[in-house]
């Protein structure tokens, strides 16, 4: 799979997914849907076998009879196979839609697989930034577990995706500037990044302003993983400093992800040997 954070797959039922859900189960984004060639055959016998549990429930709870529940194997129809892909966090689902008639009712069944968000070892600083970005897009509340230096690289990567030239300063001797952005007109913008749970204090903004002046930079961005105390905003308005809190950076991350992940999903059919049954429903009675 070329979905960096979702290299394993499971039955969609395990994560409470369902066929008509077109929003990502992790980040909530509307997923791209495309019809693909089906590499997985589902026989009439398999369709009927998976239907038995629902059939038992329907008879017990609703009292419906054989005219609604006895499927006709000769009417099996392979309707479509679709790939659903989130271009923000790269989660995916493949689903196969089949239908079969009972004497007076048409039933739909869905088979498929879903990607699994794997756990990252945040002590491992060698994990590709692309993989960390996908993980953060899906689990942004885990941002506090990432090493501060790695989070600086994530911020730098996001702004690069948004069209800036940039470089990261030395971690132990950055002079208060963690990342430097270069605009197309060659103007330099200094960024300070704080991976904090507590709100940023006024004194930290003043210190950042001093770092900008020392480095002869006329504009700055202060990026944090929490929020800013109210006193920070008057200073930022008086000087060319943009304050980017946790929510604002998440929006920037999603925008960068859409630029980088658009039409980037590929899958290897051999890595998915089977599809799992995960739902059935009937169409309106005829």
From TrEMBL:
Keywords: Endonuclease, Hydrolase, Nuclease
Top-rank taxon: Bacteria
Residues in coiled coil: none
Keyword Nucleus: no
Pfam families in the record: Mrr_cat (PF04471)
Record GO terms (molecular function): DNA binding; restriction endodeoxyribonuclease activity
Keyword Glycoprotein: no
GO terms under biological process: DNA restriction-modification system
All copies of domain Restriction endonuclease type IV Mrr, residue ranges: 146-251
Protein name, per record: Restriction endonuclease
């Amino acid at each position: 799979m070329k979905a960096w954070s979702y290299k394993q797959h499971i039955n969609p039922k395990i994560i409470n997914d369902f066929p008509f859900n077109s929003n990502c189960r992790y980040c909530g984004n509307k997923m791209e849907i495309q019809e693909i060639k089906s590499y997985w055959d589902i026989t009439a016998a398999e369709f009927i076998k998976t239907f038995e549990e629902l059939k038992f429930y329907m008879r017990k709870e609703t009292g419906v009879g054989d005219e609604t529940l006895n499927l006709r194997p000769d009417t099996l129809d392979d309707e479509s196979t679709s790939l659903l892909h989130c271009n923000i966090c790269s989660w995916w689902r493949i689903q196969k839609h089949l239908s079969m008639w009972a004497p007076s009712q048409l039933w739909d069944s869905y088979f498929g697989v879903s990607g699994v968000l794997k756990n990252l070892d945040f002590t491992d600083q060698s994990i590709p930034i692309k993989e960390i970005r996908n993980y953060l897009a899906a689990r942004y509340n885990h941002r506090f577990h990432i090493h501060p230096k790695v989070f600086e690289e994530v911020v730098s990567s996001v702004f690069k995706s948004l069209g800036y030239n940039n470089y990261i300063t030395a971690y132990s001797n950055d002079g208060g500037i963690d990342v430097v952005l270069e605009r197309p007109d060659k103007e330099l913008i200094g960024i300070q990044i704080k991976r904090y749970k507590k709100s940023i204090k006024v004194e930290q903004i003043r210190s950042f302003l001093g770092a900008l002046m020392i480095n002869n930079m006329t504009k700055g961005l202060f990026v944090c993983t929490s929020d800013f105390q109210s006193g920070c905003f008057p200073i930022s308005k008086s000087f060319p400093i943009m304050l980017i809190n946790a929510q604002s950076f998440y929006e920037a991350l999603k925008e960068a992800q859409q630029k980088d992940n658009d039409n980037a999903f590929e899958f290897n059919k051999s890595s998915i040997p089977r599809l799992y049954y995960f739902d059935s429903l009937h169409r309106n009675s005829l």
